[in-house]
Predict the structure.
Amino acid sequence: MASVGGHRGRTSSNAGDAVRRRSDEVVRRRHPSFLRPLFDDEPVWARDFEDLSYEWRRLFSELLGTFFLVLVGAGGGVVAALTHGGIGRGAAVTAPGLMVAAIILFMGAVSGAHLNPAVSLAFALRGDFQWRRVPGYVLAQLLGAAGAAAVLRGLFGTAGHLGATLPEAGFTSGQAFGMEVLLTFGLVSVILGVSSAAQNVGQFAAIGVGSYIVLAGLWASPISGASMNPARSAGPALVAGDLHQLWIYLIAPPVGAIAAVGAAWILRGDGGDRTARAAAEGRLDLD
């Protein structure tokens, strides 16, 4: 029995060494020499993004991150309704930006912290993210958003329409649609920019992305809610059962994202550089 156990131990060790050697080769092939030491302390599954063995970690990261984003984004509207304006618009639009920055910093190295189907679409169109991963990421984002909305409904009922994003009184659906296209165009342009090798800002990306979300909300949320995210809008709408304006927020952000990919090509040419792929796939600390 001892010899059998020892044989099994050696087999397991040999298999582990083979996996490690393969991940070392992936890092050597895909990353320049000055970046390779950054991967030395990473687990094997994080070193090789093409390894699907631990895809569930990345999907859980997207689900959890989107849950927190929608909990804060939609929760601000719910609490504002319950407290009769106890949370002002400035605070309500600042909180999601700060939450996104926090999520990028604490989970960006796992999944890339897309948190938004429009962002996953843009990274794939740009060549920074594998198309086969897009459906799983989008599903995880939608589940996270719906879960946050369900928690809010369980705690507070349907107060404040569960923080749903809707065109404000005095603005048409067309105006809200146009605003969402423009805002998402800006957001995705920022994300693609800070993720590119030309900028190479590393974890400062969290500041850039979070700041843009706050800025967009401060001036444009009275028009459309400044969603810029199909998942953020779909979660509360689905849980509340109010879908009459959801089409705006399902269509406009992807349109804006596609336009941003075109602008990125004009600004920086083809995508798919090592730094951008690392950011999209879950490696932002490349400073």
In short: The chain has two domains: 1-48, 54-281. The mean pLDDT is 84.
